[in-house]
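Service request form, structural biology core

Requester: graduate student, group of Dr. S.
Request type: structure prediction, single chain
Budget code: on file
Notes: please return the result as structure tokens.

Sequence provided:
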Amino acid sequence: MLVTGFFGAIALLSWALFLFALFAFVDAVFRRPDAYRAANKQNKGMWLIFLGIAAVVMKFFSILSFLPVLGLIAVIVYMVDVRPALREVTANSQTPRRIGRGGFPGRRGGPRRGGRGGSSSDGPYGPYNG
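Core staff response, request fulfilled:
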């Protein structure tokens, strides 16, 4: 009775990890290829290969063996490191950039320092009077 309960829990864990890997794979499919380059991560094809192999290994091998653990590491790296970087890159590229009256950022009305005008001799904390 105890043994069947243990293997039932392992089977549920295996299914959960497979679905986790499948979610990561589908998420990687729908990300833009240029976002991987902009986030300074490996290319999209490489992540698709890693996550696809991880999903297949988690489906067909027991979680108690070595290969699903490696797949789980790949999925965790994608979800913790790569995915947030991709989301940040795509979020920043979709927001419109506000430009001041002169057409250049940092001039009057531009985004630099709350829209106040600036001089070329301004430092990060105000005007430089050297």
